[in-house]
Each structure stands twice: as C-alpha cells, then as structure tokens.
Known about the structure:
The protein has helices at 2-38, 41-67, 84-97, 135-140, 143-158, 161-180, 187-222, 224-253, 262-272, 274-283, 298-306, 327-338, 349-376, 383-391, 395-399, 408-414, 416-429, 456-462, 468-477, 534-544, 547-553, 600-612, and strands spanning 76-78, 104-108, 113-120, 125-134, 257-259, 345-347, 433-436, 444-447, 499-508, 511-518, 521-526, 556-558, 562-569, 574-579, 584-595. By secondary structure, it is α+β, with helices and mostly antiparallel strands. The radius of gyration is 30 Å and the shape is globular. It comes from Micromonospora halotolerans. It is a multi-pass membrane protein. Keywords: Cell membrane, Hydrolase, Membrane, Metal-binding, Metalloprotease, Protease, Transmembrane, Transmembrane helix, Zinc.
Amino acid sequence: MSATYRALASVVMLIGFYVVALLQLAAVAALGVWLFSHTSGVITGKLLLPLVVALGAVGVGLWKAIRTKNEPAPGLILDERGAPWLWATVRELAAAVGTRAPDEIRLVPEVNAAVGEQSRLLGLVGGRRTLYVGLPLLQAMRIDQLRSVLAHELGHYSGRHTRLGGVAYRGRLAIGETIERISPRNPIGWVFKQYAKLYLLVDNAASRRQELEADRASVQIAGHQAASSALRTLPALDAAWRFYETRYVDPGWSVGLAPDDFFGGFGHLLQARRNEIDELRENAPEGPASRWDTHPPIGARVAAMDQIPPVHVTPDDRPAWTLLADVVGAGRALQSLIVAHGSRRLLPWPEFIAESIAAGVQQRADRIYRAAGRFTGTPEPGLPTVLELVRAGRLGEFAEQFFTNTTRREAAAAFAGPMETLLDNAAVRSGRAYWQLSWSDPARLVGRSGEPWDLAEIAKLAVAPETLDEALARLAELGVDVRQSTVVQARASARNADLIAALANIKIDGREHDVYVLDNGLVLVPDPGKAHEGEKRLKEVLSATPVAEVASRNPFLPYEEIRSVEVTKRVPLKAVITLHDGRSVQVQELMASEFLEKHSRDTLLRVFEQINE
C-alpha cells in the first residue's frame, strides 16, 4: 500500500511542481506585457531575462528526467558458478516473502545491500530485477545476519516498492535538475526550492514507511535476533570501512600507490579488530530522527521489530562469505572492475604499507627541511642542516616557529618529537629499517630482521648540543647515515590538500584572479573571466577538475612561505601578504567579487589570523 501511496504522491507533487511553473510563467507574461506598455523593450528584457531563464530550467530538468535511463549500478555480476549458495539462498528467501527472484546479483563495494527494477510505464509493467550485495557485508556478517538483510531487500520487491519507486526517482531528478540550474539570487529559484523541500518531505516520509514494511519481512524470515543484530552491525561496519580507507588505503593512494587486494585488506582488518567492531556495534551513538531522513533511526526500527510476533529461527553463525565459491577471487575481480587505479603502482599489502608510510614520513620531514632551508639560507637542506643548528645552539631559535607560546629552551626540548620523524626518515633512507604492516595496531618501524626500532631516546639526545655526539654515535652503530635524509620536495605543493573556500575576481597585485583557498596554501588563477559569472565558474572548475590539478597549472602560494599578513580592511577585504623572502603580495576584494559559498571571505580571514599567530 505504501508503494502505491508513494507513487501517487510523487505524481501529484510532480504535477504540482509544473503547475507552479505554469502559474509563474503566466505571471511573468503578464508582468512583461505591463512593463512593455510602461517602459522600453530594453528595460523589459533586462527585468524579465532572469525569470525566463529560471522557467527554461524547468523544461531542461523535466527533459533530463524523462530521458534518464534506469540502468543497473556498476558491480561484479555473480553467476551460479561464482556464488551457488548465495543464489540458492536468494531464491529461497524470495519464495518465502512471496516474490519473483532477481534476474541478477551484483557484488558492489559498499557497506550496503539494495534492489532495483527496470520497470516500464510508471511501474505498471515489471522489468529486470537486480539485487546488489556489498562485499563488505559478506566479509563481516554471519549467514543468519545476511539472510536478514537479503530478506529485507526482497521485501521491497514483494511490497512493489521498486516497481513504482521509479516515479519518485524521476521526480527527485527533475526537481533537482531544475533547482541546480537556477541562480540562488533569482526570485523564482526561491519558490522552486521551497516546493522541492515539500516534495522531499512527502517522498521521504513514504520511504521510511517502506523501510519498516521491509523490516517486517526480515524479522518473519530471519528472526528477531538476526534482524536486529544485522541492523546494529551496519553503522559499525560503515565506521570500520571509513577507518580502513582513511588509515590504510588513502596514505598510499595519495602518493601513487594501490594495494593489489583492495577488498581483501578489509577482510584482514575485520578479523584483527573484531572486538573493537563488536564494541562499536553495541555502543554506537544514534543521532536524532529527522524528517529529511529516508530511513527511520535504527533504534526506532529495532523497536518496531520487537512488536512483531516472535518467529523461531535456528541461528547460523557461519561466515557469510562462505556463500561465495571464492571470496578472495571475487574481491580481486571486483577491484579490477570498479577501482580506477590510474597510473598507480599495484603492490602487495606489506610493501604498500611500507612505501606509503615512508612517503608520509618524508613529506613531514620535507616541511621541516624547507623551514630549515629558509632559516639558514641553505638551498638543499636536510638532517645535517638541522643537526648543525643543534651544535651551534640555535635549535631553540629555529624551533620557535613550530611551538607557539614557548621559550627557546622549551622549543628545543619539544623538538625531540619532530627530530624522531627525521631520524625515522634517515633510518628508512639508509636501508636499515622499514615500516611493518599491522592490521590490529599502527604500523611500526622495524629493523631488517623484523626487530622493533624506537628512536625516541636517540631523538631526545639529538636536540641538545652536549649530547648530540652521543646520538650520532648510536645512530652510526645502527648503520643510519644522517646524510641520507635530505629534502625531496623542495617546495610545498597542493597534493593531498583540501579546498576550504574560493573567491572569484580578487585583485592580486593589481591583476584579477580567482583564489582557491586550500588547507595548505592559495591557488591563484590569473585573468579568470567576467565577475558576474564568478560563482558559477568556480563551481564548474571544481566539478570538472581536482583542485590539485588546478594548482599544478597555476601559481601556488604555500602558507609556510608566508611570514605575516596585514589585513587593512575586512569588508571588502584588503590585505598585504609578506613572504619569508621579503616579497609582498597585495590582496584586494572588488565590489563585483563572488564567493564559492557565503563564508569564503571569513574562511580566508581565519587563515590569515592563523598565519599571524
């Protein structure tokens, strides 16, 4: 019943959207006639042009929604040979919920499962069905938990949610396309945005009801325990997947490396950190319910499950991945199909971790070496440059820039932390140590025979002139050559940097630029184009090009090269940037300047304040 309600509501709301458009078109036509009779044609055209553009966006949005094909999402198609027990399970569950089994099963990389149907004639005629199963679910769940998830998804079929859900999807698409094409400053845009909010409120409420209906099928087939535990496992798995990508994959990915068994690594992590994941599942905080959510909160769903009459189901605690003939092979096949490696080098996990962490340590060392080069005027700085500062008693003076609100003596002592990074870098560059992979703990530095290396004590000796020679002697005994640790990247780049703001048509030394504010520097794009198109241009560039690529094509000013910033006026912004080499850069916001988002100027001002701290 909820599927019929949702489809009917979507159709009515979508018709209403275009009724609103027609009423506004009539109002614009009437306004045009009145203006033309009281003013010149030129003035009439200028006043009506934004309104006509907005109404034209409605037609474009509808046309795109109509032409969009409901194609299956990408994934590895699992045939009977690759997943015989999974197919048998799905067919059994489909019969149990009273629906036709899917035509294909696709393995996908998400911590999720879903169903789709390529229905026709607004869902009156059914079509090809696809069941999507996330490989991380197979890796992490028990069979009874996965049965619960699959029964839930198949319940969407028996409830006709997928067949008529296409209407809701096209409604969202049409309205979204329309809103995206109307400027925020256009008065018609405000009307459409308010209507879009109303549409989403209605559609999301229907979606939440459908989820509760599908949960009923899950409980009736798999039982309360499996259904509720599977629901509570999903947020924990999602957090584990984010941790996996951030801690294990991203560092190597950002330096041109890729693991040769992307999904297999997650399986290793799950095994090594199972207790942590179990604890996260039991204690995961739940945010407040929102009327904008497409799914009810998990707590509310579990509570609704408790109201369903109990069904006796024998638990099955076998790992869900046994439903595949070869989970490792399936993971590698999915990786080759889904993961775009580009020119990255594929490495086994131990080598991938060793090289990625070594590259990260080198990047941190380079920042220190570049600072030492600016401080001493050394063109090719390295660890010997820093050690000479120690021997000359100038380390505290140099280290002040890294430790604010400290005396020089305190800064020198605190530099033992950065010094350990430099010594770790020297040990790896000397070929005496490497970073060892661990799935349960952070990677650790070990010697060539696998013995743990801890250079923290030597680092403490190396920051004081009176103990420097002892530190060097101990490093020599370990075979570490301090001369091997030198700067690799002589100037900071935007690689791995994040965009935090952007401003269009800002004068830099008297010449207009678009300014992209990153977390480690400013990208200055000269002669960008017309000011009134600034916001649109910034969005188009960022949607089409990674910001690091934009930085590689244009001047990049790293914050570490800036000595101070004098802000002479906050609105419109006027400032003078002074660099360590003595040069200055004039920054001036124009009245016609535009922002990527309304707080971009404030963000840039905060960056300037942090530089001056």
